[in-house]
Design goal:
about 170 residues; six-stranded mixed sheet; about 35% helix
């Protein structure tokens, strides 16, 4: 299904105050994560690393008063349990479709809830802080926006925020 709102949006920087903003955290199954580190870390060590990074991310996001909620999308029951331990919501996937399809599913769930702004944050950012996210979240709450935070090498996206009514929003 095509992301509804992608072509219908009218973004003009208009105010978006009082609207809900949810974070989406996509997480691979733990046994499939961090495979590039397999030459230096065992599967168990990589699993521990993924859990620690997920806990770090959820600790930050679930304590941000600016967010209306946090939705973790994963096919891994261990990830689900960690998510529940932090009081966040889980979108349980029966399969492992890949990042884009997982995000599409998550966005659809939040669209059905009439969420106005999404913040996508990856679970493996060791230097993530509440202070680094606040300006991004504040912009998403205050006005119609799309913002992408790339990694330093500009190869990947660390975070993405988008208001539903912005013409470049992917939802």
């Amino acid at each position: 299904r095509r992301w509804s709102g992608f072509w219908q949006a009218i973004g003009n920087g208009s105010e978006n105050r009082g609207m809900s903003i949810w974070a989406i955290v996509p997480v691979k199954p733990i046994n499939e994560a961090k495979t590039r580190l397999s030459s230096v870390l065992s599967l168990e060590q990589r699993a521990d690393l993924v859990q620690l990074l997920l806990q770090h991310t959820l600790n930050i996001l679930t304590t941000m008063e600016e967010l209306s909620g946090v939705l973790v999308v994963s096919a891994d029951p261990d990830v689900w349990q960690t998510t529940y331990d932090f009081g966040a919501e889980v979108l349980k996937e029966a399969d492992v479709p890949g990042l884009n399809q997982s995000l599409q599913r998550s966005i659809q769930v939040l669209q059905d809830m009439a969420v106005n702004t999404i913040l996508i944050v990856h679970a493996d950012l060791p230097y993530l802080t509440k202070e680094s996210l606040l300006p991004l979240v504040s912009l998403g709450v205050e006005r119609s926006i799309v913002a992408i935070i790339p990694d330093p090498a500009r190869n990947k996206c660390h975070a993405y925020v988008a208001s539903r009514d912005h013409p470049l929003a992917l939802w």
